[in-house]
Design a protein that fits this description.
The chain is an alpha+beta fold. It has one domain. The chain is built from 3 helices and 3 strands.
Length: about 80
């Protein structure tokens, strides 16, 4: 019986087009446009991309803000 090897190389993309960035954040493109404060980078004329690290920071900041809101509401009930 023959053996087969499958080599798969996955390259993680750092810079994303708007639809990819919206998908990455889990938001519809229409909502992403108005909700996302992350500024895209124009890497060349007509090519605008969002940095994955900036999107991650935005999401992390939102989570921290939610956490503080939750803590404040819990303390307010005590």
């Amino acid at each position: 019986m023959a053996n087969a090897n499958l080599n798969i190389s996955v390259i993680q993309v750092r810079m994303m087009k708007q639809a990819e960035a919206a998908n990455y954040t889990g938001l519809p493109v229409k909502y992403f446009k108005s909700a996302c404060p992350v500024q895209p980078v124009e890497v060349r004329p007509g090519t605008i991309l969002w940095d994955k690290r900036d999107l991650d920071k935005w999401i992390d900041d939102m989570k921290e803000g939610e956490d503080l809101t939750t803590q404040a509401s819990i303390l307010g009930k005590l």
